[in-house]
Amino acid sequence: MAEAAQNPVNQQQKIIVTNKHGEKLVGLLHDTGSGDIVILCHGFRSTKDYTVMVNLAVALENEGISSFRFDFSGNGESEGIFEFGNYQKEADDLHAVVQHFLQGIRVASVILGHSKGGDVVLLYASKYHDIHTVVNVSGRYDLKKGIGERFGKDFMEIIKKEGFLDIKNETGGVDYRVTEESLMDRLSTDMHESCLQIGKECRVLTVHGSDDEVIPVDDAVEFSKIIPNHKLHIVRGANHCYTSHQTELASVVVDYIKAALQQDKATSN
């Protein structure tokens, strides 16, 4: 175990899971030999190799807990076309991953998501009810907000007129396209109604930075009002990416997951 903690890279195994659309999802298993696996879900325009995902995987590994970080369809190494929105599809991608591990000796016991991934793990919990520990790191409560800040205030008029909006990168090329359909996917995803479907048997931790410049910390407070079995932890001074607070984020998350897994073990005994 000590060797795995010192050199976690050696313990990573590439695993491919096929989603219900036949697309291959690519992920990396940090294998400590534990029976429980924590599934790590990245955010918007991100990948499994994002700093938060990697650091959390290593922190869990150092405590002897296996994890699996993967790319949602249309992102990173996974197959599929990138789409703005896709919240329910990503929850279904996550379901394919959870089901994959049910077939082996390990069980996906915890799901964790950052930013958009935080919304995805909550949507998963509201729909599937088979995972009882969920960690929402800086997810957005109101998905109608934050779009104008990203695309400009006249984004809706352009999409209604053209049928799409091309988002340019720094060199002027098209980074990705937002279609009216993909925009409506996001606007029709109601986190409030979904969270009301999360049962009391599902424990949820929400972590959010007090200085989050992308998603206001007030969103975390809203989640705490409606999710029945909920714990809220505000990381003072942290921004959306936890740039200067990676260690505190990892400590809070790992302590919560360890306690949850121990509780599950005690209950099953």
From TrEMBL:
Signal peptide: none annotated. Pfam families: Hydrolase_4. Coiled coil: none annotated. InterPro entries: AB_hydrolase_fold, Hydrolase_4. GO terms for cellular component: cytosol. Residues 37-150 form the Serine aminopeptidase S33 domain. PANTHER family: ALPHA_BETA-HYDROLASES SUPERFAMILY PROTEIN, RE40534P-RELATED. This is Serine aminopeptidase S33 domain-containing protein. It comes from Rubus argutus. The lineage of its organism: Eukaryota, Viridiplantae, Streptophyta, Embryophyta, Tracheophyta.
